[in-house]
Structure prediction request, 415 residues.
Amino acid sequence: MNRIFPEGFLWGVATSAFQLEGSPHADWATWDERVGNNPGITNHYALYKEDLKLLKEIGVTAYRFSLEWSRIQPREDTWDEQAIAHYQDIVDILRDYGIEPMVTLHHFSHPRWFIERYPWHKAASREKFLRYAEMMASTIKGVRSWVTFNEPYVILLGGYLEGCMPPGLKDVRRSLLALKNIFTCHGKAYDIIHAYVPDAMVSVAHNMSVFAPWKKWNPLDRLLTKTAKYFYNHSLIDAFRTGTFIIKFPFSRAVEIDVPIKDKLDFFGVNYYTRIHLRFNPLKKMGVELRHLDLGGYGLTDMGWEIHPGGLEKVLRYASRLKKPLIITENGIATHDSQEKMKYMKRHIDVVEKSLRSGLDVQGYFYWTLIDNYEWLQGLDVRFGLYRVDFTTLKRIPTNAAAYYSYLIQSRSKL
Prediction:
């Protein structure tokens, strides 16, 4: 009898180093004053051994976490051997627990020296990042699964178009230079990792959303939706198939950017959270107004995002064009209500099961996230964690969702 969830399916949780532990050497340490007021965030850097025990409690088979580059290379000419040993210890503990590590090299934060001297629109950024990537691939032992960049389009939108993330620019031309440099780094890092880890599985984690017109009858809303869907979801996937990014916006010529990433994937990571409705509004930036509408009746999260489980199958189906194994590298809900967290989790895992039954090659699901953390630009009260953090005492408190995820892993693994 064929199993629905394949042998070796990765049941995991995902985290990001800076969001758990901060870093005095990171650009984000001074970017958001809320981090400055709470620099250690959850104190995970000191409490990591206790936090990793929570993974055993849940019964996950995989754990996605990131390396905090700014701790590892706090100055351009300095490698912190103690920080490298710290992350190696995490890998070793996971291996002892029988949990597969998945390491993310870049999850939004940078060393301050990098973002000040070599931001992504400068060609020198490539050399600096690839030096770091090679140091990690050659030094960290016991890791087969690697993510080079988490949500590279979010880096570009936040850092180069909205200006809400470092380096804080609003410059289309430089955003295109940054795109070329980031993805050139992925292509070269792919080769570097494979040189040191021949059987490595390497990808990016691509944030994908479902887009829909605010008013279906409005041709401008429909045009915006088509444009957003292609740019945000599909252009990256097509670039991995062809080696060329095609950036298309209404009423303007397409921009083509060649990058050395054709087939430089061993799996494809999908981060999925929500559906977004779009409306043409000439009073808004670029004529676009975004809204989360609760049309499905599942409600909105504490971030104001629509809960839309069915969209997960849509984005997985498009990503399947890559003909690579698919792994859901993030999926989760911001809510103080543990029951809502449980319902969100079940509905999305039901969609994973449906996708597997329909023949999609899905090989893993990572819930975001293990414990409450710092949510970029939102502070500490956005509760994604399976374990609640009391930010006064730093105590980890299990939510009912932690035990429920454990139940889902055990029950679905038998299917």
The longest strand covers residues 201-213. The chain has a mean pLDDT of 96.
